[in-house]
Amino acid sequence: MQNRWNERDAAGYTSDLELRAYSSRLVGMDTDLVLHGGGNTSVKSVHRDRFGVEHEAIWVKASGYDLGQMWTEGFTGLKLEPLLQLAQLDLLSDSDMVNEVNCARLDSNAANPSIEAIVHAVIPFKFVDHTHANAVLTISNSAPEMFQDIFGDEVLVLPYVKPGFDLALQFRDAVERGLLEQYSAIILQHHGVFTYADTACSAYERMIDVVARAETALADKAGHVSRPDLGPQNTVDIARTRGAVADAAGKAVLSLPVCSVEPGQVHAMAEQARHGTLTPEHVIHNKPFPAVIGDDPTKAVASFSSAYEEYVDPHNNPHLTMLPAAPNWALFETGHVRSFGVNLKRATISRDVALATTQALGLAAELGTWQGLSTEDLRDLEYWELEQAKLKNQKPDADLAGKVALVSGAATGIGHACAHVLRERGAVVVGLDINPDILTSMNSPDFQGIVVDLTDEGQIIAALAHVVENYGGLDIVVSNAGVFETGHTVETMEDAVWDKTLAVNLTSHRVLIKHAVPFLRHGIDPAIVFIGSRNVAAPGAGASAYSVSKAGLTQLMRVLALELAGEGITVNAVHPDAVFDTELWTPEALKRSAERYGLTIEQYKMRNLLGREVTSRHVGLAVAAFVDGTLRRTTGAQMPVDGGNDRVI
């Protein structure tokens, strides 16, 4: 556990809130302390209102913010006195607590504060830090008797109570008994750690000290968890499993690799996991237990769904919104571990929580036991009225959320525009191109470029494996890669021009689809879209290789539509024409072509029946219509995107 406090950096922050933000970020930077919004911090100070009246106030981390990323904007200011008055009540419902705390905000437009705002208020110290430290929780869930050996009388250990008002009452009692002054920290069984002091540095360093000592003791007694090198997982099995999870969830999901465990320990670890999550909030991210996947993913996911429905049923409530009975993570009998989520953010959170969980369970196996929260406590949190309220206020998923799209020839032009449109619709998009610029033009987790020579079958196979291993499957293929050389009559064309054009514009597409189909058949509403050309219907002199290759590509599309319809895979084509916002059309080339027709460049760009310019984005929007559900009942179709061409019509 690294102490990241830097006096020189801290000296640059003069206000209480800036110091609070600085030390909070230090806490949030360490994933062994908090994960994805877990934990919270606060500072008590003075607020001067519009009338010049000073009030004692507290700034508490706002709900939904990440300690490791936020600054002062991530704290909500509250009047302190109303919170202290609330703490004197003996009973307060969760919804009433949230309402009363929100009424104490200094700014009515501020975000909702942490549900533990009252807890922070009753602790009589200026700075309060609260984390869900993995080492402390691992000991709490497996060998709580170790706390006495580690900390003696320095740290107060309290039994678990539900976060929110119940926890505030527990702290109120501890404060009234004068316990906080006697201890440097408080450990809440199965929940986490609180440290407190009148300076930001002291509160932070107490946290680091407590967790570091727990880590050392844990390492001394349990050693370290080893991660076996299992090699790559079978990619078709990954896609099959993701498809089964998506069916159970009722929507597309992504699946990310988490880690590996010893294959012989999979079932024992899965049984351990049924005895409680690492910390309470993890049940919200990852449900109370994982799925175990063997040879039949569909059967395994169905088994999980049945067990989850049985877990929820004792809490049956007509007003309850049951979550989809689909796993958020899974242990494979091969030893591989994967997460699932409706978008990249949710899948990443589940991945990180699953990683922390397998680490803790591995250590607990060395200590001999694991017992987190009871089933009743977990269910009470997962279906807490505050969590149910969040579900009802959730925004609808994006059209392509949870889907994985592959676009060939995506570095520039039409391919790049297609990739952008699919990303805007919510898909994770991977682009393939021989042009190394794709590494910079597509360089984020949900928009990734790979340098691939699409005439090399081995490189295509490797790229597809990368997509499935990293995102779980494949749903959309936009087959766009192409080259265009004009000015060659059939009589004068070199054989190399013909061979290269057909290799890129036709054969590479066949090879890509050949190796994509085994994954698409397990995809969610799977679709293939080929980027053809106006030349299919209206070829031009001097472009025989290009025209023939695009005509062959269109025929390939028609055959694939016949072959794949029975598996629910749609196959269509888009035929663009006169798309001038690509690298092919340089200013010089545009000028020459316009002059040949006696037109200005702008007139030339709109030389179609509609008199409107056609851009690469228009092509991308047409592609999206074939894959976002708009034309879900269409296959084998050819759509022109050309502004209307009299030769075609």
General description of the model:
By secondary structure, this protein is α/β, with parallel strands linked by helices. The protein folds into four domains: 7-222, L-fuculose-1-phosphate Aldolase, CATH 3.40.225.10; 235-392, no CATH class; 404-579 and 614-641, Rossmann fold (3-Layer(aba) Sandwich); 585-613. 43% of the residues lie in helices and 15% in strands. It contains 24 helices and 19 strands. It has an eight-stranded mixed β-sheet with strand order 14-15-13-12-16-17-18-19, sandwiched between helices. Helix 10 packs parallel to helix 13 (297-312). The protein is elongated, with a radius of gyration of 30 Å. The chain starts with 6 loop residues before the first helix and ends in an 8-residue tail after the last strand. The mean pLDDT is 94.
Largest sheet, described in full? 8 strands, mixed
Count of individual domains: 4
CATH class of the largest domain: Alpha Beta
> Which term fits the overall shape?
elongated
SS field, number of helical segments: 24
**Unreliable segments (pLDDT under 50, ≥5 consecutive)?**
none
Query: CATH homologous superfamily of the largest domain?
Result: Class II aldolase/adducin N-terminal domain
Distance between the termini: 70 Å
The CATH architecture of the largest domain can be named as: 3-Layer(aba) Sandwich
CATH fold node name of the largest domain: L-fuculose-1-phosphate Aldolase
Beta-strand content estimate: 15-25%
How do the strands of the widest beta sheet line up side by side?
Answer: 14-15-13-12-16-17-18-19
